Input
Amino acid sequence: MAGIGFQLRRILSEDTYTATLRAYFYAGLIGSGPWVLSIVSVMLIGVFSLGERMPAQHVRQFLVTVTYLMAVSLIVTGGLQLFFTRFVSDRLFERQHGRVVPNLLGILLLVSVVSAVLALLALGLLFDQPFAYRLLVLANFVVLCNLWLVIIFLSGMKAYNRILAVMLVGYALMVLSAYLLRFLQMEGLLLALLIGHASLLFIFLRDILREYPADRLLAFDFLDRRQTFVSLLATGFCYNLGIWVDKFIFWFNPHTSSAVIGPLRASIFYDLPIFLAYLSIIPGMAVFLVRIETDFAEWYERVYAAIRGGETLQRIGRLKEEMTLSIRQGLLEICKVQGLTVVLLVLLAPRLLEWLGISSYHLPLFYVDLVGVSVQVVFMALLNVFFYLDKRATVLKLCLLFVVLNGALTVFSQRLGPVFFGYGFTLSLLVCVLVGLQLLSSALEDLEYETFMLGR
Amino acid sequence: MSETSSPEPVADVCLLLEGTWPHVRGGVSSWVDQLIRGLPELSFSVCFLGGRRDDYGSPHYPMPANVVHYRECFLESAWQSEPPPTAGRGRDVERDLRILSQFLHAPEEPSAEQGEALLDVLAAGSLGLADVLYSRASWSVIRESYLRHCSDPSFVNYFWSLRIMQAPLLMFGELARRLPRARLIHSVSTGYAGLLGSILQRRWRCAYLLTEHGIYTKERKIDLAQAGWIAERPDDALSTALDAELGYIRRLWIRFFERIGLLTYRSADPIISLYEGNRRRQVQDGADSARTRVIPNGIRLEAWADALARRPRGIPPVVGLVGRVVPIKDVKTFIRAMRGVVSAMPEVQGWIVGPEEEDPAYAAECRNLVVSLGLQEQVRFLGYQKLGDVLPRLGLMVLTSISEAQPLVILEAWAAGTPVISSDVGSCREMIEGGSAEDRDLGSAGDVVAIADPQATARAILQLLRNPTRWQAAQAVGLERVGRYYGEALMLERYRRLYRDAMEGARWPA
Output
């Protein structure tokens, strides 16, 4: 999320209510990212396609295909996202702006080739759908994999009005195309998805190319191990796998799922509540970004400036306490805002689901998921603090813990029966957050020791 | 204590040298060379300590046959060599670190027991470099000592100063465990070499001799006062300028050298200096007066017999300054004194004998001074000359230095029959007027004048040149004095005896 702190502080420096509101709005937009907007758009497409000449079965096949596209592309590129974010921040820190774009194009080329090969293999071996379907899935997959790498630059871009506009245009284009192309059935909807995401990808790419001029077209410096942190690949992979592993377990347990299209299975009563719940994290994400990237980041900078600038140990200690306080306040504020959101949604949920035409059968799971995704925001905030403190090993451990716990507890919850569905996901996040808080506490405790004695 | 070094001595004398022989030319190095070659019946094991390997080229002195073992050790490698994992048995890292920190950095003067405890820690190797550099115990000791003693300067400077001081100590502990055993230890300075000697003595339980040519701790203080590498906060630097008080980090460094010097003074016996002034200084710095003694440098008298024979009859009307043309020799005072001399005795020549390359700007200033005083005819710059050729042609040798220890050139001048006028620095008065009562009875071998006093210098020169009786008396005293007290044979004999006593005498109490 390099650079967003600077943007947020710039907006907040105006010190007016509208500026504050704008900062939170911007943070929500960047933080929740296009993938929350994707959920909304795709759900919108699903909602209006339903009943109009298209059988419910096809709409469902479309939704499940999209879900798999999202899940697999995020898991496949998750490691690269973190890895490349760090690579870019390091290069920007070294003021080597010229190396950004050639390497971005390099990694996009690599991602395109690898994702296309993976998709070709999967589609060729596992699917017997029509060629058009398979081709569109392949194209969508490659575009999504690229998009996830491009959006890591959003936070660093200055023109947030433009980001907003591009997102609106992209998703509007997607929904509109879907409306116009729905006569082509599922293929039309997939084509609309492709048009939407591809337009986002290319417009953002164009903006990045303008922002970071370069004298080379392609570079593969990110493959040089001396300039990168390989552990980030594992961390990003585990984090994204952790987010999806409970879903996969539900999809591939025959008792909780049904085949939808080709080898793709889905679990309608598990999937719908969690996707809806994800929409609720927007306020929490906004608060998380504003607090962590402004308050915490400022204190963090002061602590390290004091260490480098030769301040007394007492002063370094006092600044560290302020930094700790800013973390505490940030987490507390996320909890407050997200807690309020959860309470409101719990109160409104029955009517909301009724209005959306979703069975109240989903309500208990929706409540559990609401709590789960809210804890996930806290988890993300913690991970971000650890990244600031450059505790890559800790983040990797926490993400590994998340994958293992989410997998194990989800399997366990399936044994216990439908009343316990969703608890695996929520509980695993809760444990990770508690462990993370404990680790953070000792990391802050040892901050001076590790900085001075171990040179970390 | 683990015995990794061989129990059977491989050499008689383990000679510890810091920044001198065989890599650096100079007074101390030639003394070392003289000592080793002069005592061929003894075998030496030499350990050279230096800062950075790259600072030293190939050795300037060929290795004598009686050096049976030679090793070099550089401070910079204190960071590279990770000592082998130390035995876990009864290891109390925090206690050891506290001993280290208390002795080296605490403002209070450490007790003898604290010094013993530190040497025990270093000799036993119970503390590893990793303990000092990375352990939590080390962190808490540093933190504590910072909070207790030092609230003013920046922590990062304090922290790194401590690390840079402590790391080499562990390396020397490690080195002490590896050096081959010798019958006695002889260090030629305090400082790191002296510290290594103290650790070695702890392990070998043998005699430990210390010879100091200059006063190491004093020299370090001068270096530190001028050191630009010590990062200090502007207000600290300001206070240095305003009330002549040193910044905290400088004080910390000075204290460090004082403490390791103290450790050496407490371990070594005898503690030898070149002259009485330095002996007093050692006592002032913590050496036990009963252990101190003076052994002056000596020159090979036979080598100068020829020069003496070539001396013409009478007093040559030539006054010579022998030394490099650098500010410390205060050549300008000599030139100004020559103005006074020439006004009274126009026939007198002033020769400046010594290379001018070291400080060309200063040499140019000196030449300008000669011109502006109108002495072009009388004062000549001869550059480097063989002393054996020059000394017989001098009527007087003059030293105007503002700092000297025990200049060999005075002894050489006497051996060549030249009386000497010197500024009152180092051991010069002791040499010219005599040290012991017996020595004083011989009389004066020239004259001593205040530093930077051209009038007094001119007067002293004129008095000797114009008074042949006094001049002849001074020449005779010089010859007698150098022959009696400053012969190389005498110096070597004294060390031979010290070594023999140390090897044969009672084993160091275990």
